[in-house]
Amino acid sequence: MDVQHEILAHHFLQGDEQGAEEYIKTLLEKHPRAYLYEDIITPAMYYIGELWERNEISVADEHLATAICDFVLSKLHSESGLVSRRHQKNFKAMLFGVEEEQHYIGLKMVADTFKNHGWRVRYLGPDLPLEHSFTQIQKYRPDVIGISAALPYRLKTIKRLLERFSQLEWNPLIMIGGRIVKKYDLKEFESEHVMVVKDMDHLKRWFNEGREETINETS
């Protein structure tokens, strides 16, 4: 097997924390973290999802793989070091999976990306009910709200969230991401205050183009 994401996927499926961590560290010697997220870890988790859809692995296998991936991501984040206070920005992001959405690995990678760019981040995890999310948002008043979904029947929930978020007086930027944006055209949701994030490269370009600096101009 010579496909990198499949090699990593099989470390995850075998519950091989050490093997997965060592393999990722080897890749990081040659590639930036953004490449690791977009071209290795994300395809690895999609590959695992496809195996489950074809009944080649069980739900327990998928949960084990997710747990190992989560462990490795947490380890990488802890070893990467924190952004110094001198370089920390005043921007705030809040990230969560919509109600009943269980997938969260992509969200953790997005949270890490925001932190690496000096943002203050509140990661609320998957499956957050609408009212709870709205309460947290009103308390924290983030500049960016990132929501994630994988399956098409989450579209109704996304619409409900966008309707509620449109009532926020400070007009935060809403980012929609997750596997759903790979499979479906969500252009109808896009606006001055709503951005559909197609992948990690798209988010990276947003930062590199200095788009974050325009947030306060549109709020």
TrEMBL record:
<dbReference type="GO" id="GO:0046653">
    <property type="term" value="P:tetrahydrofolate metabolic process"/>
</dbReference>
<dbReference type="GO" id="GO:0031419">
    <property type="term" value="F:cobalamin binding"/>
</dbReference>
<keyword id="KW-0479">Metal-binding</keyword>
<protein>
    <recommendedName>
        <fullName>B12-binding domain-containing protein</fullName>
    </recommendedName>
</protein>
<dbReference type="GO" id="GO:0046872">
    <property type="term" value="F:metal ion binding"/>
</dbReference>
<dbReference type="GO" id="GO:0008705">
    <property type="term" value="F:methionine synthase activity"/>
</dbReference>
<dbReference type="InterPro" id="IPR006158">
    <property type="entry name" value="Cobalamin-bd"/>
</dbReference>
<feature type="domain" description="B12-binding">
    <location>
        <begin position="90"/>
        <end position="219"/>
    </location>
</feature>
<dbReference type="Pfam" id="PF02310">
    <property type="entry name" value="B12-binding"/>
</dbReference>
<dbReference type="GO" id="GO:0005829">
    <property type="term" value="C:cytosol"/>
</dbReference>
<dbReference type="InterPro" id="IPR050554">
    <property type="entry name" value="Met_Synthase/Corrinoid"/>
</dbReference>
<dbReference type="InterPro" id="IPR036594">
    <property type="entry name" value="Meth_synthase_dom"/>
</dbReference>
<dbReference type="Pfam" id="PF02607">
    <property type="entry name" value="B12-binding_2"/>
</dbReference>
<dbReference type="InterPro" id="IPR036724">
    <property type="entry name" value="Cobalamin-bd_sf"/>
</dbReference>
<keyword id="KW-0170">Cobalt</keyword>
<dbReference type="InterPro" id="IPR003759">
    <property type="entry name" value="Cbl-bd_cap"/>
</dbReference>
<dbReference type="GO" id="GO:0050667">
    <property type="term" value="P:homocysteine metabolic process"/>
</dbReference>
